[in-house]
Design goal:
Blueprint: H1 3-8, H2 10-14, H3 22-30, E1 50-57, E2 64-71, E3 74-82, H4 85-88, E4 98-99, H5 103-113
Antiparallel strand pairs: 1-2, 1-4, 2-3
Length: 116
Amino acid sequence: MNLKEIKQNKEVVNNIDWKMTNETAISRYLEWGGSWFEKDDYPVRNLSDSSIYFLINNWEDKAYLYLVQIDSNGKKELAKVDLPEKFQKQFLGSKKGIYGLDDDIKEWVKGELEVS
């Protein structure tokens, strides 16, 4: 899926957790019982619980935006999107890894998906 296809899939767009981070998702879904939860956070209640969220992965030659869905069985890639050049600079020379969306990237993605 690209951003246009994501935008057209209202079920996916409406279920994106904009506050979810990769660390929280792994802790919540894959490391049961090892987490403290904040007031807006919640533990997994059953095996059908899942979250959809964005992350930045720069393990390849450049950084990519991923839309993923995670549940107790693991993580599934829903989309891999080229990150615009203006955002690539902050990942050049960075340690390879998985990153959350900063405010500028989040604002750009929400604009592309036409969500507030």
